[in-house]
Amino acid sequence: DFPEDYFLRHSVNEVIWHAQVILRENSIEGVRVDLCPQSERGGSALFLYTPVSDRLFNRTTALIDQMGLTITDARIITSRRGYAINTYLLLDSAGEPVLDKYNGEELVTLMKQALLSEDGAISVTTRRIPRRIRQFHVSTRVNFHQDEAQHRTIVELFTTDNPGLLSHVGQIFYEQGIVIQNAKVATFGSKAEDVFFVTDKNGDTLDAESQTKLREALIEALDQTD
Questions:
Q1: What is the number of structural domains in the chain?
Q2: What count of Cα atoms within 13 Å lies in the side-chain half-sphere of residue 4?
Q3: Do residues 61 and 30 share a domain?
Q4: Whether 159 contacts 141, CB under 8 Å
Q5: What angle do helix axes 101-116 and 56-66 make, rounded to 10 degrees?
Q6: ACT domain spans which residues (predicted)?
Q7: Are 132 and 190 spatial neighbours (Cβ–Cβ below 8 Å)?
């Protein structure tokens, strides 16, 4: 059920943790959410196992941003059964793991509610960009490649790692009907280098017009500075 890429990108301990969460009998409607306050990768690890939808990435990243948390790493994978196997590495506003038990439980509860809700996208909040990041602004670049073997489009995004970056990306993807099948999110200082493997709502690759619209929307949104 899980693709080979899943096992290449997770440690043995992470695979065991995920299996324990997925097999819990009290999980409802196929949605599993759990938080490891202190992960072996540093920061807190938020694990989601839920059916894939075009609004999943938007709802997840927007809620994390609303709670004032920062995503430093994201591993987004889709199982062969159409379930998202997503792990986000998080830090709080002080750059520390989410160790407070109440805050951790609140995050898990709100995330479950968001994933089960029938509402549309979650509004993205705008956080002030720190001066140190503005000083190292990286102009946004978006590249596309077609993965014909997997029938999906690869989107490469290079931009400044602003607060709430992924929530803005998630909102744009949702508005343009783009579904994320897989993603590799990485941050190098003030620079974000993210790769998304996507399709449209019909499961097709993005055509030239869709690519142009997506590139323009991402550049317009991400190159704005306060």
A1: 2
A2: 0
A3: yes
A4: yes
A5: 150
A6: 45-131, 154-226
A7: yes
Q: Give the CATH number of the domain where residue 100 resides.
A: 3.30.70.260
pTM as predicted: 0.83
pLDDT digits (tens, 9 = 90+) for 107-118: 999 999 988 887
Find out whether 90 and 71 touch, Cβ atoms under 8 Å.
yes
Contact 48, 33 (CB under 8 A): yes
Domain boundary among 86, 116, 146: 116
Q: What is the mean pLDDT of residues 46-71?
A: 91
Q: Going by C-beta distance under 8 Å and a sequence separation of 6 or more, which residues neighbour residue 135? A: none
**Per-residue b/e over 43-72, b at no fewer than 16 CB within 10 Å?**
bbbbbbbbebebbbbbbbbbbbbbbebbbb
Helices (H), 97-183: 101-116, 131-134, 165-175
Model confidence pLDDT, tens digit, residues 132-175: 555 567 789 999 999 988 899 999 999 988 878 899 999 999 99
Helices (H), 126-185: 131-134, 165-175
Give residue 181's domain range. 131-222
Beta bridge partners, 54, equal: none
| Closest of 90, 75, 80 to residue 43, by C-alpha | 90
